[in-house]
Design brief:
The chain is an alpha+beta fold. It has 2 domains: 206 residues, no CATH class; 211 residues, Alpha-Beta Plaits (2-Layer Sandwich). Helix content is 61%, strand content 14%. Strands 1, 2, 3, 4, 5, 6, 7 and 8 form an 8-stranded mixed sheet that branches. The relative contact order is 0.07.
Length: 428
């Protein structure tokens, strides 16, 4: 048995959980509203024509009871027609039940208690069954109420006026009713089962998406889902930054593992907010270090400038966090070692990288590789030599806007491991 079947009452064809039933009804309404509008106008038009025929042609207009019913029903019809969509959603079942059962019974019993012959033959019974079990948007139980509330009075009327014999009931009413009721029940259960399965799939998809976002960020997660995890390598021009906490080993030396994790999580959460603001993609956390790419997996205009602005904002955010930590006892872990506040070092470089899924067949990681990555990492380390906090290459420097360009300071030429030529370094 499907899990959804356990949640559906097999008799009423409704969900056992009231909240789930409400959610389903809203879901169902969104899908049948267009059909209901068409049915409403059809119901009003046909009802009007039948009423005109009954009153002016068949002679039922002489019956004050029948005329009163028509007057009341027309008022109800107009009220429902011009009500809000929310009211239509809430009361469409009741409206169609009252409209159909009231109209049919009023007509049937008016003809029953009069000498006027009923103008329709026994073929009306299967038509009624099909209308209320297939055409009209009744829930299963309401559909049963509709067919029994209309077909029985009509059957009595037809038999009383010799338009149908009792032995004709089996193939004109009973057999079609059994078949159509069974069909209605199956369709109702299937509709609800599909809804529940789709809801479960959507819930699981959202859970997976939220889980992936925690590990990969929003942009990369969307890429993974769209491409079904297949992010092939691309050679693209990006900016890479590495940020590392200064004197990290000394800071956490006397922290418990739980405290160290709490400290890092607070720090990374704050940095993540800033990085996300500048559309950076966090590639990896390595201890206290965070590697960020600007321009992948989504292209980013002026990523050189953006990467520097992000680094400056990260520094400002860290200053805010230091004020927060100073107000608590958290700061004692580093102030007891002569460290006044937490600082970070950032290295930034721009250039061509290969970006994509890298790893084994069983475990992949989105990453960037190439000389650009190595240069950014080594620039971060060389902050120690210049006593700077943000160090970037000439390639970044030449792309800066006027405000950043004016604040930048030339630190000198440095030789980086793995490069034959020297690199001009700038700070801000």
């Amino acid at each position: 048995m499907d899990i959804s079947d356990k949640k559906i009452n097999r008799l009423s064809c409704r969900f056992e959980e009231s909240d789930l039933e409400k959610e389903f009804l809203a879901y169902r309404w969104d899908r049948i509203w267009k059909n209901i509008k068409i049915l409403l106008y059809f119901d009003i038009t046909i009802g009007f024509l039948i009423r005109v025929d009954d009153i002016f042609v068949q002679g039922a207009g002489k019956n004050a009871y029948y005329l009163s019913y028509h007057a009341i029903s027309i008022v109800i019809m107009l009220l429902f027609l011009f009500s809000s969509n929310e009211k239509k959603r809430q009361y469409h079942q009741a409206y169609f039940l009252i409209s159909t059962i009231g109209f049919m019974n009023c007509g049937a019993w008016t003809y029953y208690f009069s000498d006027i012959p009923f103008p329709v033959g026994a073929g009306v019974l299967p038509i009624l069954l099909m209308l209320y079990l297939i055409v009209y948007p009744f829930h299963f139980i309401n559909g049963l109420i509709a067919i029994f509330g209309t077909s029985i009075p009509f059957a009595i009327l037809l038999i009383s006026q010799d338009n149908m014999t009792p032995d004709q009931l089996s193939y004109l009413l009973i057999l079609p009713a059994v078949f159509l009721i069974s069909n209605k029940r199956s369709r109702e259960i299937d509709f609800r089962r599909d809804f529940y399965q789709n809801k479960t799939l959507e819930t699981n998809r959202k859970l997976m998406q939220e889980t992936l976002k925690r590990y990969f960020g929003e942009t990369l997660t969307e890429k993974i889902l769209v491409n079904e995890g297949d992010l092939k390598g691309d050679n693209i021009w990006v900016s890479i930054s590495f940020t590392d906490i200064s004197q990290y080993s000394t800071i956490i030396e006397h922290m418990s593992p739980e405290t160290a994790v709490k400290f890092l999580n607070e720090y990374f959460s704050a940095m993540h907010d800033v990085i996300e603001k500048y559309n950076g993609q966090i590639i990896n956390y390595i201890g206290d270090s965070v590697m960020v790419v600007f321009g992948a997996p989504e292209k980013l205009e002026d990523h050189e400038v953006v990467s520097v602005r992000c680094a400056v904002d990260m520094r400002e955010k860290l200053n805010e966090m230091n004020q927060k930590w100073d107000e608590s006892e958290f700061s004692r872990y580093w102030k007891n070692h002569g460290i006044d506040k937490i600082t970070a070092r950032t290295g930034i470089h721009t250039g061509s990288v290969i970006a994509g899924n890298i790893g084994s067949d069983r475990m992949l990681q989105y990453s960037t590789i190439g000389d650009t990555v190595n240069v950014a990492s080594r620039l971060e380390q060389r902050n120690k030599d210049f006593e700077t906090e943000i160090l970037f290459s000439q390639e970044i420097y030449t792309s800066l806007t006027k405000d950043l360009y004016g604040d930048a300071k030339y630190e000198g030429e440095i030789n980086l491991k793995g490069r034959d030529t020297s690199t001009k370094a700038y700070s801000i």
